[in-house]
Write a structure and sequence with these properties.
The structure is a single chain. By secondary structure, the protein is α/β, with parallel strands linked by helices. It contains 15 helices and 11 strands. The strands form 2 sheets. It has a 9-stranded mixed β-sheet with strand order 3-2-4-7-1-8-11-10-9, with helices on both faces. A hairpin with a 2-residue loop joins strand 5 and strand 6. Helix 1 crosses helix 2. Bound molecules: coenzyme A.
Amino acid sequence: MAVAVIGVGMTKFGRDLEHQLPELAFKAVEDALRDAGISREDVGFVAFANVGGWSSEFFPLPIVCEYAGLNPKGGMRVEAACASGSAALAIACMAVESGYTDIALAIGAERMNELSTSAVVELLGRGGNFFWEFETFGLTFPAYYALLAKAYMDEYGASEGDLAKIAVKNHYYGSMNPKAQFQKRITVEDVLSSRYVAWPLKLYDCSPITDGAAAAIVASEKVASKLTDTPVWVKAQGIATAPANLTMRNDLLSIESAVEAAGQAYRKAGIDDPVKSLDLALVHDCFTIAEIIAYEDLGFARKGEGYLLAREEQTYIGGIIPVNTDGGLKAKGHPVGASGLAMIYEAVKQLRQEIERGRQAPIRRGQALVHNVGGTGHFAYVTILSLEKP
Ligand code: COA
């Protein structure tokens, strides 16, 4: 059964301690309900993406539903690290596909700034492999991705300047996105002169710590075609996992789960050449190196050549494929559980051509891709959204 996204919503991302977690979620839900033109009583199932740990709420789903006036037949909290938002979308789609409900809501929300940077970095670091990698070797997330960056630079000859170009592009699009955490343009020099966080990654190579929420409403084919003239179909979703320990991976120059998830999604969607089949992509740029590796994992570039797309500015609008037209996690912000749904928000708005001037990609093929990675590749979700019913 085909499932369509019929409404999306999100808050402005940033440091937002004025609003409690249920308030953040409420704002995204209101936005999505308005966009879909339905009432809260129509929602039969809620999947709530939240990594938590930093939030006061221990079991947040019922509080979020109560505050938003939702009383679904069923619901669950969903956690797949930084890919939780896409996991919530997957569960919402399954609730519709199974016939459990005609309309399901996926919400993602985090209030990460409840804790200090060092406490957040510690919690995220414990999300890698606690015993072997965090406790024994002290690896945090910037350090994990720094290892990947070093291995990549050594193997293929990419430079810190190539990584910097990803940050410059994403800040450029962030500067035009009113929902982005950072709305200022930066230069390669700004990136190169920013302080090291985990060598060779500097401040501007990192996504920030963010508070925010995003939501997407999905509906069955029957209901979607009654409610909207512009359904955005979930054409395919690839889902994969990989070992938590980096030492168990075959390759440090690629996220194996992302390669697998992309392969599944492309096969289901009948995509042979992603660059020729997609209008744009939202990829998981938690660190600049992650976006370069994503180009290769998703088949936008050959292995070892992803950095050339950055160097040649081929992932701006007008290049071979626009990537992260919303500013990416780097500039838009990365409230981890909400990030995947914020990517879905951008992809849906882009396909419906509802984006502000300057960052609307040309929509010719009617297809967009969302790539969302959890941990260092413990999970990966690749979603193809399409204006054409599958
Ligand atoms: N990019 C650009 N600017 C940033 C930034 C980032 N990632 N993080 C913070 N800033 C800015 C702040 O806005 C602030 O600017 P101001 O002085 O003009 O107000 C300044 O830098 C200092 O901010 P602060 O919050 O004190 O920085 P910090 O040192 O506490 O945190 C990091 C910086 C990079 C350590 C932190 O953002 C981080 O850990 N990021 C990674 C998060 C992560 O791992 N997510 C999961 C990925 S899988």
